Amino acid sequence: MTILRPRLPGYVLCFALLAALASGSASAATCGGLPNPILVTATGVAFGLYSPGANAPARSNGTVTVTCTITIGATLPSFTIALSAGTYGTFTQRKMGFGTARLNYNLYTTDALGTIWGDGTTPSATQSYTASALALTSFTVYGSLAIHQFASLGVFADGITVTVTY
Q: pTM for the complete prediction?
């Protein structure tokens, strides 16, 4: 007698890597009027183990931090943060890859997942900061990985470039 058992969906590991870049003029690259370089750091959006049979999208957060390297008496200038479309080049639906397999996901400006964080071209928006007395500020990157995507088992990834323009 043979007993047939349903095959359970496998789990895959998923993450979006965020690489930080800063750009601006030499005069704007000061904090508090001092020749003080601006440091941009970013943490990836790690979705962890993804189950295609889950009833809710996988969610995760990353962070983009902009800092004056010398913080005493420093103030950040106004700037804009843009995120690239990623390896597969679309904001409408970013994709993570493992070989030829793809998983759809996206990155957003708020926890409500209403606005795609990109470079400002439709359908995306950038994040802005207005100069103040702060020497450090952070922005949360909200990620969502769509449900019911059945793909091969593996480690799925995408590369996102973070660009800070001041």
A: 0.85
